Amino acid sequence: MKIRVLGSGAGGGFPQWNCNCRNCHGVRHHTIRATPRTQSSIAVSTDNRNWLLFNTSPDILAQLHASPEIQPKEGVRDTGIKAIMLIDSQIDHTTGLLMLREGKPLDVYCTEMVKQDLSTGFPVFKMLEDYCTVNHHPIPCDGSSFTIPGIEDLRFYTHALKSKAPPYSPHRNDPHDGDNVGVIIEQISTGKKVYYSPGLGEIEPHVMNAMQAADCVMVDGTFWTDDEMSSQNISPKKAREIGHLPQSGEGGMIEILNKVENTRKILIHINNTNPILDEDSDQRKILDAAGIEVSYDGMEIIL
Ligand code: MLT
Ligand code: MN
Ligand code: ZN
Questions:
Q1: pLDDT in tens, 8-42
Q2: Which domains occur in the chain, in start order?
């Protein structure tokens, strides 16, 4: 299977439009070695022609312009996007649906909770009723498997994660299974597995099991420290509070990934404040030494 990273940044992208942090200033003015990143999304295919999109970022149009394999091939209107899976209803993962309104009905796979958010707090499913329309396909949150018509040779397993619904959600402070899911993508013919979870607040046993069993993990790379935003007076919010396990420190993502063996380890959904974006930073060297990669837009993983 091939995985194409469409957007490796967290909400806001890199640089973020209104941000003057060391990284954003540095990448704008070329004073650090770093590459801009669009917002969080990947695409997966086993035939280079039919793609399953994971999440639809506000940057989707630029991401598709940069991805010839997903562009129209036949007839006057066409796309390589055969279906979409949403892992949550966050703004950076869902607003791109509006950019796909010119096409055929969208086959969107997501949990009932995500569907609820996208029909109430951010009623994009309802809005699209007067454009392309959305066919919603419910997905499990208990780790059971399913396949997607048109996406050959792949099987998916989705499980609930301990995290939160987005700030706009009517049930922001009332967590439910299915507000966020982690997904195992398995190629049926080869048995190869990828675990994809750009928002991981807590490593529950089923998450650890999924990572151990995977050939490649693409996991939450949002923040280096818990107080990354508060220490720079950017926001009072702590990483863990908003559902993102920081990389450094006790119980952090590096410590977790050190326990996972025989697996390619890739961080994704990287916030613009994260020092790992500076390729010459000490933090980046720590990741290199631990064998942990930092994803970038256009990165392709072949398993
Ligand atoms: C997150 O990943 O925590 C959210 O995307 C943040 C946001 O919506 O800005
Ligand atoms: Mn996000
Ligand atoms: Zn910034």
A1: 999 999 999 999 999 999 999 999 999 999 999 99
A2: 2-302 (3.60.15.10)
Q: Which ligand is nearest to the CA of 122?
A: 1
Ligand 1 within 6 A of CB of 10 = yes
Mutate to test the pocket of ligand 1, among 18, 59, 91 (most ligand atoms within 8 A of CB): 91
Instruction: State pTM to two decimals.
Output: 0.98
Sheet containing 106-110: give its strands across: 134-138, 106-110, 81-85, 51-54, 41-45, 2-7, 300-302
> How far apart, in whole angstroms, are the C-alpha atoms of residue 91 and residue 281?
30
Distance 289 CA to ligand 3 centre (A): 25
Would you say how long the chain is, in residues? 303
**Which amino acid, 110?**
C
Q: What is the DSSP letter of 95?
A: G
